[in-house]
Amino acid sequence: MSDYKMKKLDESGLDKVSGGAADHPGQQKIGYTVKRGDTLIKIANQFGVSVLDLVTWNDIRNPDLIYPGQLLVIYKSA
After folding, report:
1. DSSP β-ladder status, 14-16 and 71-77
2. 3-state DSSP call for residue 18?
3. Separation between Cα atoms, residue 66 and residue 62, nearest integer Å
4. Which helix (H) or strand (E) holds 6?
5. Extended strands (E) in the chain
């Protein structure tokens, strides 16, 4: 994930992440820090995206295994 620069996240774990906009035109790229108890299904539902999108965008090899503190990139429609 070296194709983007991260900004400091606020206490909610959300912030805009710079770079990569050409890959997803018309979408806002944000960062989300995984919290204890989170699942990909819960995160996908929270942001209105699919689990498959989360797995693809973040190159997750085992969708059953995410960690607190892990930064996920999410593309939201602007």
Report:
1. unpaired
2. strand
3. 8
4. none
5. 14-16, 27-33, 71-77
